[in-house]
Amino acid sequence: MNEHERTAPEKQDERFIDMSVGGQAVIEGVMMRSPHAIATAVRLPDGSIELRKREYKSFIQRYPFLNVPIIRGAVNFFEMLGIGVDTLNWSADVQMKHVDPVALDKKSKHSAMNTIMLWGSVVCALLFGMGLFFALPIFIATISGLTKGALLFNLEAGMIRLGIFFLYILLISRMPDIKRVFRYHGAEHMSIFAFEASDTLSVESARDKSRFHPRCGTSFILIVSMFSIVLFGIADSLFPIVFGHMQSFPERLITHLALLPFVAGSSYELLKLSGRFRTNGLVRLLIAPGLWLQNMTTAEPDDQMIEVALCALKAALGREEAAEA
């Protein structure tokens, strides 16, 4: 651990701006989202930074009746999934433009088909992820003979799910491109911490911030896993009371799938609360496992990576003139 690296947010958390600003690491860059705009900055092979910004009004802002606890979390999850896919695709296209402009030109001529193929690959990836991280743990727990104890069953399935996730992260973290994405992920967190602490948005001020943020998607995954153990355990306990027989594997799978939006929405609310009350002693204790898990999904960035993250953040906040300086 170097002098700039910290294991948990400390001094910068004593005061922070309660504003919904988040981000995502992309290929050689960072996307930042504020309540009013989305901006993505990427480092080009020649060392310059390319920036894309668009005005943003969330689904919840457009349809206020959805802005209720749990529902807004589920809506936000799927909305951010779409934004994330679009941003990743754009960052890949920007890099391709400088490596193989001919291939990019051919791609742009078939934009409609490319869009269909892109979302087709997203659907396939989601189905694969659901099978690997959701159906497989339930199946393994089922064949292990623990189907009669609802809580024990879901505890085993949850631990299997986390084990698969850990193994998956360990495997992809060995890929050079993913290692760089994880470093940009760290730069994203450090930049947001600088903003929340009302510091100057500069490399120097962001450099001494933690790369572990309580509102990270990695922490969200851990909250989902833990919360699902309890909720699925309750649902499985009630199933034989309501239907008069123990669940089969397909029935259990369908039950848990039906509850996923509620799990995602509830976990979103818990994640927001953990970020808002991060200075509370009990909350700091509860969020510690999620911050520890970010050791696997973030890495220490260099100053150029932090510069890219700050460029995106300034643009998302409407400070483009500072981003260009």
Concise description?
This protein has 12 helices and 4 strands, in the order E-E-E-E-H-H-H-H-H-H-H-H-H-H-H-H. The protein has helices at 59-62, 71-99, 101-108, 111-143, 150-172, 176-196, 203-207, 217-243, 249-276, 281-297, 303-316, 320-324, and strands at residues 22-26, 29-33, 37-43, 49-55. 32% of the residues are buried.
Secondary structure blueprint with pairings:
Elements: E1 22-26, E2 29-33, E3 37-43, E4 49-55, H1 59-62, H2 71-99, H3 101-108, H4 111-143, H5 150-172, H6 176-196, H7 203-207, H8 217-243, H9 249-276, H10 281-297, H11 303-316, H12 320-324
Antiparallel strand pairs: 1-2, 2-3, 3-4
* Strand and helix order: EEEEHHHHHHHHHHHH
Coarse morphology: globular
DSSP, total strands: 4
* Major β-sheet annotation: 4 strands, antiparallel
Main β-sheet, spatial strand arrangement: 1-2-3-4
Oligomer: single chain
Helical content stands at 55-70%
Task: Show unreliable segments.
Answer: 1-18, 321-325
The secondary-structure class comes to alpha+beta
User: Strand fraction band?
Assistant: 5-15%
Mean pLDDT: 84
- For the termini, the CA-CA separation is 32 Å
Computed Rg:
21 Å
Helix segment count?
12
